Amino acid sequence: MKNPIFYSDTYKEIETSVKILLNNYEDFLSNSTARSPRAVGDAVENIITENFEVILGDVSIEYSANFARRAMEDMAFTSVENYYHAIDVKTHRTDTSFNMPNLISVERLSRFYEVDTNYFVLLLISYHLENLSLNVTDVKFVPIEFLGWDCLTIGALGWGQIQIANSNYITVNPGYPRKRWMLELCDVLMRFYPREITKIERRIERFDGVRESWLTKPDE
Q1: How is the chain split into domains, by residue range?
Q2: Helix axes of 10-23 and 37-56: crossing angle, nearest 10 degrees
């Protein structure tokens, strides 16, 4: 059975509700926080996590926003159909020229998706500021497998980090099959890892030379 939230209009209704919530929320920014995209993002995340259970309504049977800073989810819920949704909130200020956020480790995602009823979901919020007022222009609430590989990349951290290549350009493919997306992820990694091996070999060669150079120096 496909997750009804993402194979109906439910996820679009959630997107609309989040946008309405933020655009109608009483101004909450100060001069100092408005200058920091991270501070704005933290404030937006707090508003959403405090109100998301209400937005979900009877879609959810269990909701939590009590996660450590390094957890992959900022909030999570279990739907009435018993699907578990780990939600990562990402904000993007549209008048910045470039933004390349990390989403999740490829290893963590692969383990999480060993359970078919698990969903890693991105809540992507695009906004601009009008003085100290937040104007949300777009909200996307989608599982990671709905994001096209034309807007994703892999960062060289640990096993590899899935990243949005540029938050100004995001491709969403509604209903995209998870199996196909995960196979594409494996193909991407089979091209990525050999390039990393080549980089490491060059680094080994470089510091082998550095070591030899230092061995020839006289002791002090």
Answers
A1: 10-214
A2: 130
